[in-house]
Specification:
Layout: H1 2-15, H2 21-32, H3 37-44, H4 48-69, H5 71-90, H6 94-101
Helix pairs in contact: 1-2, 1-4, 2-4, 3-4, 5-6
C-alpha cells in the first residue's frame, strides 16, 4: 500500500494539473492529507463509492499519462545521474563527473 501511495504521489506531482479540479482535490485529500474515504465523501457531500471511483479512475489516468509521456521515468533517470555525478565529485574524480554531466542532455 505504501509503495502504491508513493507512486501515485509522484505521478500526481508531475501530472496532477492534467486532471480535473475535482480529481485533483480528491487525490490531494486522500494521498497528501490522509483523509479517509468517508471524510472525503462527507466533505464533498457524496458517497464513499463515488470517492473511490474518482480515486481509481484518476490513478488510472495518471498511469496512462506516464505511459504516454514518461516524465517520472525521465525524472528518476536524471536523479540517478545527478547522484552519480555528486559521488564522482565527492571522491575528487572531476573528469568522470564531467563525462557524466554530458549525459544530462
Amino acid at each position: 500500500m505504501l509503495e502504491r501511495t508513493v507512486k501515485i504521489n509522484r505521478l500526481l506531482d508531475i501530472y496532477g494539473k492534467l486532471l480535473t479540479e475535482c480529481q485533483q482535490q480528491i487525490l490531494d485529500l486522500y494521498y497528501h492529507q490522509d483523509y479517509s474515504l468517508s471524510e472525503i465523501a462527507q466533505q464533498r457531500n457524496c458517497s464513499r463509492q463515488a470517492v473511490l471511483d474518482v480515486l481509481q479512475r484518476s490513478a488510472v489516468r495518471l498511469e496512462e499519462y506516464e505511459l504516454s509521456l514518461g516524465m517520472v521515468k525521465i525524472s528518476r533517470q536524471r536523479e540517478e545521474l545527478l547522484n552519480r555525478i555528486k559521488n564522482q565529485l565527492g571522491s575528487g574524480n572531476i573528469e568522470a563527473a564531467l563525462k557524466l554531466l554530458e549525459n544530462l542532455d
